[in-house]
Amino acid sequence: MSMPQKLETIVTEFREAPASFRLPILLEYSKKVPPLPQYLEEHRESMEQVHECQTPFFLAEEIDDEGRVHMYFDAPQEAPTTRSFAGVLHEGLDGLTAEEILAVPDDFYTKMGLTEVISPLRLRGISAILWRLKRRVRGRLEARKAG
Question: Where is the Fe-S metabolism associated domain (predicted)?
Fold first, then answer.
């Protein structure tokens, strides 16, 4: 499995930072989650809840005509760590092809050195977000091929 360049850059930023800076860097990514488009704001039931997260977290994705994946995340502002995971995934993966996203190592976040600053329960959340995103992307690809 390979890591897309955008995500590799983020991983390197964390890995090279002193442990004491990793959490503040992570929390900055909570600001990088774009607002939901209007149609998702009005139809949140079309988003999938990631039950493994400690806070209510929802995701949706689309694959455009060029085969690029666009992802949408909904997490409360008062859950900055969870929003930060969404920000990392959005910054590192949005706009890539489905194949590139499916090739991301499931444990890429371990290379970020977050185990030193984040609880295992929270790390399970980012793992679950990526797993569900990949499952949904895989399902969309299969539907395109079948349809």
Answer: 21-135
In angstroms, what CA-CA distances link 65 with 62, 70, 95, 103? 10, 11, 12, 20
List pLDDT tens digits, range 49-99: 999 988 899 999 999 999 899 999 999 999 999 999 999 999 999 999 999
pLDDT per residue as tens digits for the range 94-113:
999 999 999 999 999 999 99
Please give the residue range of the domain that contains residue 14: 5-142
Q: Is 22 within a domain? A: yes
Residues 6+ apart with CB under 8 A from 142: none
C-alpha 111/C-alpha 127 separation (Å) is: 13
Residue 147: inside a domain: no
Burial class of 29 by CB neighbour count within 10 A (0 to 12, 13 to 18, 19+): buried
- Give the domain CATH number at 118: 3.90.1010.10
Would you give the DSSP letter of residue 30?
Answer: G
Closest CA to 60 of 48, 77, 42: 48
Give the residue carrying structure tokens 């929390």: 27
Quote the pTM value.
0.93
